[in-house]
Amino acid sequence: MALRLGDIAPDFTAETTEGTIHFHEWLGNSWGMIFSHPADFTPVCTTELGRTASLKDEFEKRGVKVVAVSVDPLDSHKEWVKDINETQNTTVNFPLIADPDRTVAELYDMIHPNASEKATVRSVFIIGPDKKIKLTLTYPASTGRNFHEILRVIDSLQLTANYQVATPADWQEGDDCIVVPAVSTEDAIKKFPKGVNIVKPYLRTTPQPNK
Q1: Residues 7-61 pLDDT 10s
Q2: Which of 33, 86, 175, 191 is packed most tightly, with the most Cβ within 10 A?
Q3: Beta-strand (E) ranges in the chain?
Q4: pLDDT tens digit sequence for 83-109
Q5: Catalytic site residue 177?
Q6: Would you put residue 41 in left (φ > 0), alpha (ψ -120 to 50) or beta?
């Protein structure tokens, strides 16, 4: 069964480049991102892991723990990390899960037979502190992931988890938000002291409430 938004992220124990992790225990009360790669020593994924490492401060300030997974063994991961650090001018600073028996890949439905019988597709799962899946993204092998978009979505998820707002198309941190339909206009005016702009009865905006 494919995982859906709101499902509990499957727990697992795995060997990684930073030792054994018990996934839920490792996450603790943090947000998490687990993202998969078809194989070690692949060009697009080399750039992605390097980019993730360079964004360490951005993930940390959002309280997000990052872990990658590939169906290759640990020794291969360790050699690949050397290449990533060299070619991407960074230092990989998060664990890479070794998944040669495809346990994690199958738990997270990362094997798509139409794409490959044995390799993981390039999926992203954002997981909340409640261990529930908040976002899933799956990319083709030919297209590198946009980590600015991933961070943007995390910003939106964290904002909307705490306030009764949604974020409009192309929203960026600091932009106005949409008041969710479940909140009446009368209540919205009380709830959002920065003001409520009524565009239509169903479309009401307010300045980002946590700014």
Answers
A1: 999 999 999 999 999 999 999 999 999 999 888 999 999 999 999 999 999 999 9
A2: 33
A3: 13-16, 19-22, 31-37, 64-70, 96-98, 122-127, 133-139, 165-166, 177-179, 197-200, 203-206
A4: 999 999 999 999 999 999 889 988 998
A5: no
A6: left
